[in-house]
Amino acid sequence: MSGNARARLLDELSSVSRRYMASYALFNQAVADRLGLHPTDLQCLNLLTLEAGPVTTGRVAELTGLTTGSATRLVDRLERAGYVVRERDSEDRRRVLVATVPEKIAEFGRMWNRLGGGWFTLFDDLGDAELAVIVGHMRRTVEFSGQQIARLRAGDV
C-alpha cells in the first residue's frame, strides 16, 4: 500500500473512530437516562457484571478509575437505585463487598438484549480472521485508553 493510501486510511480511521466514540457515548447516555442512572454508574454496573463475584469498593475504584471516595458515592447511587447491595465478606467480616442484585441485572440484561438484538448480525459477512482483527483492535484500544486515563488523572498531559 502506498504512503498516500495509508495516510488516507488513517485519516478516515481517525474520523470514523471519533464518530464511533461519540455515538457510543450518546447511546450510553440514552440508556443511562432510560434507567435513571448516570452514564458512569451504568458503565460501572456493566463492569461489575463482568467480575466473577462481589467486589470491594476499592475494586470499583480500580475498575472505573475513580477515587475511593467517588467510587463510594457511585456505589451509594447504584444501591439506592436497587442495582447493588453491600454485604459483609463471609471470610473477613470487616470487609464490605458490593454485590449486584440478580433481578435488576436481569432487567438490565433484557434491555441490552432488546437494544443489541442486531449486534451480531453486523459481523455476519466477516470471517474468523477479520473478527480476530476486530477483537485484537478492541483489546489494544481498551489498554491504550486505560493508559491515557491514567495520564490524564496524573496530570501528565
TrEMBL record:
One Pfam family per UniProt: MarR_2
Which InterPro entries does the UniProt record give? HTH_MarR-typ, MarR/SlyA-like, WH-like_DNA-bd_sf, WH_DNA-bd_sf
- The HTH marR-type domain covers which part of the protein? 6-143
Instruction: Give the GO biological process terms.
Output: response to stress
- Listed GO MF terms: DNA-binding transcription factor activity
**What start and end residues bound the annotated signal peptide?**
none
Per its record, how is this protein called by name? Answer: MarR family winged helix-turn-helix transcriptional regulator
